[in-house]
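sry for the spam today, last one i promise. struct tokens for design, 298 residues
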């Protein structure tokens, strides 16, 4: 594919204060029995939750419900969780939320926090450090069960880890055609960052355009390793920055989706662009100023 598209307290600094946010993390987790073992001995990790920061939660919740058909999965104070079809759940988080404690700087308009569900957080943290990453939030209990942690990869991207407790089945999610289908992680060193995520999470190569490998766990959205600040991205170049994942949503009809976005208070950031391999992409901006992509596959 053309690489031009790809590109969380107050109780203690180390203990999660907001049980509602913790419960939301747990709700979004895959169960242990849903997480198959990989031949390499690691468990392939899939994205289980993406947080979008909002300046007006009721407004933005309505925007995504009406634009993409997402439905409410859980409603916590200042943090609704939306079921986004076959993709990971989407949390709409309050801008500047003091409950986030030391992680509050991560919650900014235009940034997205991506959480990977893993089998064993301690092992994943050890592997991350051995691969050159850093632990920025140690394994922390969630009051309703399970744990979470945060790491930073060698080039400075911060991601979350979540580990479920037990194997109770998860509630079903709605079936809509608008899931998150790709998360792009930007880096100045594509081969090294690709190797980090492959070895950390057991991801495997799905496809590769020049300079833009797309990795997969076999479930959840794919992970694109994009060159940061690549001028080939055109108007979307400024979106591809280290520490700022790019989220693309699948849609069967970009033109119709952009029209719906406009009617619901969003705007087109980059109009539809055809892909040589078939399909198309575009970017839009939501009412709070977050810019996400649309991806139409043929």
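last one done:
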């Amino acid at each position: 594919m053309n690489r031009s598209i790809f590109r969380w307290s107050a109780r203690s600094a180390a203990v999660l204060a907001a049980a509602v946010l913790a419960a939301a993390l747990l709700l979004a987790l895959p169960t242990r029995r849903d997480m198959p073992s990989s031949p390499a001995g690691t468990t392939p990790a899939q994205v289980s939750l993406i947080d979008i920061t909002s300046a007006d939660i009721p407004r933005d919740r309505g925007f995504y419900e009406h634009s993409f058909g997402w439905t409410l999965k859980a409603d916590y104070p200042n943090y609704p969780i939306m079921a986004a079809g076959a993709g990971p759940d989407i949390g709409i988080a309050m801008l500047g939320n003091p409950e986030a404690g030391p992680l509050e700087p991560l919650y900014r308009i235009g940034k997205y926090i991506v959480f990977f569900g893993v089998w064993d957080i301690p092992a994943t943290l050890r592997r991350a450090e051995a691969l050159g990453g850093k632990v920025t939030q140690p394994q922390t209990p969630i009051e309703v069960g399970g744990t979470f942690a945060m790491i930073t990869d060698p080039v400075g991207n911060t991601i979350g880890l979540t580990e479920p407790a037990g194997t109770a089945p998860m509630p079903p999610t709605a079936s809509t055609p608008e899931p998150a289908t790709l998360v792009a992680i930007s880096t100045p060193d594509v081969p090294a960052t690709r190797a980090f995520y492959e070895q950390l999470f057991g991801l495997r190569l799905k496809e590769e355009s020049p300079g833009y490998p797309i990795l997969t766990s076999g479930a959840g959205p794919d992970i694109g390793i994009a060159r940061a600040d690549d001028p080939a991205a055109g108007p979307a170049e400024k979106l591809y920055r280290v520490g700022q994942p790019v989220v693309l949503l699948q849609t069967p009809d970009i033109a119709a989706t952009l029209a719906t976005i406009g009617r619901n208070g969003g705007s087109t950031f980059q109009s539809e662009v055809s892909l040589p391999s078939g399909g198309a992409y575009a970017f839009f901006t939501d009412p709070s100023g977050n810019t996400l992509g649309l991806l139409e596959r043929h």
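The first helix runs from residue 19 to 27. ok im logging off now
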